[in-house]
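Task card 7
Instruction: Convert sequence to structure tokens.
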Amino acid sequence: MSQSTDDLKAEFNKSVALLRTLRDEVRVKVHLAGLDAKEGWGKLQGKLESAEKSAVDAAGKAAGDVSTATRTAIDDAVKALKEFSATLKK
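Output:
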């Protein structure tokens, strides 16, 4: 083989090795992101369930009778869910 053929083959092998390394790194990152997402969702679910219960309890009341705490809990849950959803898009 000529020197240029050997160089091309070596460069190709380096590219293939880099491709494999990057693939493995991305695979690990995706796995960890999945675990982080599941953990975040688990933490968020309790907050959402509490806010939904407050909303159901308040649903039969007049708007003026709904407590500030209930409104705040629902607003906080909506905000937290939007933020969590945004992290999933990244």
